[in-house]
What does this fold into?
Amino acid sequence: MSKKTIHAIYGDDEVTLASVKKLVAAGIVIKEIFSPFPIHGIEPVIGVKKTRLATCAFLYGITGTLLGTLMMWYMMVHDWPTIVGGKPNFKYFYNVPAFIPITFECTVFCAAHGMALTFLLRSWLLPGVSPKNPDPRTTDDKFLVEIEADDKTADKAMKIMKESGAEEVKVC
Amino acid sequence: MQKQSDIRTPLILGDNITYKRISDDVIRPIIGKPPRLWYIVVTITGLMFAWGICCLAYTIGTGIGTWGSNNGVDWAWDITNFVWWIGIGHAGTLISAVLLLFRQKWRMGINRSAEAMTIFAVMCAAIFVVLHTGRPWLDYWLFPLPNQFGSLWPNFNSPLMWDVFAVSTYFTVSLVFWYLGLIPDFAMIRDRMVKPGWKKAYKILSFGWSGRVMDWNRFEEVSLVLAGLSTPLVFSVHSIVSMDFATSILPGWHTTIFPPYFVAGAIFSGFAMVLTLLLVMRKVFQLEHYITVKHIEYMNIVIILTGSMVGVAYLSELFISWYSGVEYEQYAFLNRATGPYMIAYYCMMTCNVVSPQLFWFKKIRTNLHFTFILSIVVNIGMWFERFVIIVPTLARTFIPATWNMYTPTFVDVGIFLGTIGMFFFFFLLFARYFPVIAQSELKTIVKYMVPGAGKNKSGQH
It folds into this structure.
């Protein structure tokens, strides 16, 4: 029993979503869906968990705040405190109002770049990486659903795909 | 599934809008040969840019004395231009980030170009920051790096230092936000491009984007979070820039209205520059279906809003200077209106207070020629505003014996013209080689368009 890869091409995101729902209901596992724009509502249907990148950004942001605070405490309070404009520097909290802009900027910097790099590495998007979409039309106006099925379920899957509006169905 | 009401003007015009049509229209300027006019304007702006570089080299080689700045007026055209360019940059981030958070779908046709404009504007602003220190080869002293002066650290209490962090963060985060949004669009071009060298270039630029479910899931989350991070950046960066003036003791500068006044002014001039660029680009690249009269009208409404805020700020400054009873403050404003730079003051008042009020009339704000002229008028007015804040104030400070006049030298003017040339040069290159419309975003709202809805309501171009 060999596993076959089947590709179905659709022209509309709602049709794709409806078709995928029927396939999942029939017990077929969807391997991947390639689309030119995000299909809303597809993640719960095929069982893909939502990303935790926002949490990552928050954690990177906290790191940024801490790093910024540490930097300014070390440089202006601990290592070489100078009296600027007659204002004392002995404790960090004397300076906090003046340090807020830089603390904020450090937070945003670390949050944004940390999250962006994590995104690129998790999705493996780097200069020189080869694209994985089997059909180049999927970045233009077509949606491609890829499933792996053994001989028994392949026919059932292809039948569901054709009936629910697939423009092309082919076995690879 | 959301459906747009029938009485709303559609955001994409045309009878047969399909996903393919959008891809076709966005890729057409890149695949085809650009019009002759593109080559002409690239040459002109390239020459302006080159002249700017010559003046820059002259400044670095000979010294800051080649500028007109002197002991009294130590900030003049350099800081005027820096604040002007940074202000222009804020509109792009506002369109990309703030309008995303407010779910304003009309941003989709314009956000890519607006964000590109931000990147180039901040690059132009950075030139002035780097140069105005006088010894630009020592600019690394601005950063908190361990050194051999006993590790002499920069003063984090100073707004000039806040600027260093704010502008660096703003530039890098805007660049990342813009580029990540471009990735799926580069993928579209890569997959449709036939010429092998170009295909390879776009393959590298697209980072191997495939459009899988998890990729899109992450992409949307990253866009939302970056928008959420960029929004406070818009407000904080220009507030920090305004603090360069507001935290001083000079009359006319030392006022708490500066942060909101500068932010409103930045959005005001930024939207005007977006209009100047887009009105030309949509005609040249035949993108009138995506950057419609409705988009232009919405941007004009933002211009009335922020222009009115700027006008109110001017009036409140004038009122408070009188009401405070502080004679230095009163003289600062008397000097602006009646002193040696009064022409600049009246240019500023006419261009910034009077002209945006014209947009209250629907006939004017849907008229594209008028909008184009007014957008240039607004930008000129905002340049004069920054000039009026900086130069007359510095020319007439507390002690009359220290008063000094300022005139720009050809180097001041040359570097400014050079940055204008650089800005348009880079924007033209962007328009030629990069997708100017966020086509993957735009495709998500095609379904909302009800064909034929609102056709008799929108002002036809």
